[in-house]
Sequence to fold (546 residues):
Amino acid sequence: MTVSQKVVLRFPSEVADKPVVCELALQFGLKFNILQASISAHREGVMVLEMLGDKSQQEKALSFLRDKGLEIESLSQDIRKVEERCIHCGACVGVCPTQALYLEKPSFLVKYEESKCIACELCISSCFTGAMEALI
Amino acid sequence: MSKLLRTYEEINQKIKEGKAVVVTAEEVIDLVESKGVEKAAQEVDVVTTGTFGVMCSSGAFLNIGHTKPRMKINEAYLNGVLAYAGLAAVDLFVGATQVAKDDPLNKVHPGEFKYGGGHVIQDLVAGKDVLLEAFAYGTDCYPRKKLTTWINLRDLNQAYLFNPRNAYQNYNVAVNLSDRTIYTYMGMLLPNLDSAGFSSAGQLSPLLNDPLYRVIGVGTKIFLGGGTGYIAWEGTQHTPTVERTSRGVPKAGAGTLAVIGDLKGMSADWLWGVSVRGYGCSLAVGLGVPIPILDEETMYYCSVKDEDILAPIVDYSSAYPNGTGEILGYVDYRTLREGSILVQDKKVPTSSMSSYRRAREVATLLKEWICKGEFLLTEPVLKLPGIESGLQFRNLPERPVNNNFLTGGR
Fold:
């Protein structure tokens, strides 16, 4: 069964320069979509990845990555909405590419559906009150 | 004016007796739809409006009390934000868009503008201690030259919000025709028409429920920042002469209000310091105006719906910054709130800069205050300039200045 799963991969400095992610396709037959990637000053890397393919192959691929020294987290933890800072204006709604943030009708409250988030962080740039936080 | 149904005195008498019939500007729409304007006007005494959004041209006057020895403050900072001190000895004015002095601004674009005057006002209202650093040159009567202390709203002699321009009657819909993301006071706008920003409470907005300024005027008591205030004057850039629809609703930013109110009665929940990426700091303000239903015409105007209100679509990558006045089309607020609009045949997702949810809460709170007899209406002492004033929005006519007159500024 083909499923989609979004994960955050953290590369320690000794792995950051190794070709690892391509093995997802070569060894495990998975498609992947890199949503975001960065390497910090100390050469550690962070990558947000969407994996598409067989569920059991994905599990094998993740344990392969762990063996290579990567830390793996599920994506949904990484963009957080701080409710007490949200003024429910909706400035984030029109720029959110996946409608993870939306205005609920008729309450007109801004709601956040974490499972739809691809961590593009446009909501963080568009929020006036610092209500959206990245925990990467 | 159509037949007078009730006076301010009669409405206030009913409010004191707990008998006033009050509905919000949202509730009144269904009422008029089902019963008609005439019947609704007979039943309802007051319609409450509300808005909550980022409103530049806001600020607060603070009198911090005298020091011993005395000091005539020349330069002052509140939590690192410059406050205007050129008023007297210890009167300060903190403006909403003033950015903290060590902020990197837009040196790395887009700047984050994490703390500014709007945040200082919110912190004061929240009851937090605020750091005051003040400097003076010293005089015989005011010898002190330096002051560093904590101040708190409760200890100030006077602290009042004075916002020269709030509650804009209608506003632009901002889009971006360029090929790069732009950061504006209408929010972040994605390139190639990938997002649109708008900002009005529409059918709940105070001046859109009294489009010709028949009942809202100088002296009208209002909901301001969670407390009460008054309309002090026409707001800056008040422009009653813009194009209007057949029901008198302006098709662009038109009327504005200058408002005043005691900061000590306000709440940090309704005065919110904001950081607009790439633009700067400001203050989100909750503001609501009660409209007395004096006659049927007042009720007719209060029954305005989002679909009756049109806003101009403006390109903020070129037309707005260059002041060309070019408009890409008009769209109504019902469509804007549905989540997307059509611009140049492209479906563009919309973002609201002002909170419709909290606009509704303002109107509801104001309704509750009136129903409980805690808030009486005041009759304006002066009308706001209407269409007949001919008041136009003027740009600055820049004139060349001979070098002999330069005073040494930058």
The longest strand of chain A covers residues 2-11. The domain at 2-77 of chain A is CATH 3.30.70.260 (Alpha-Beta Plaits). Strands of chain A lie at 2-11, 31-39, 45-54, 71-74, 79-81, 101-104, 109-112, 132-134.
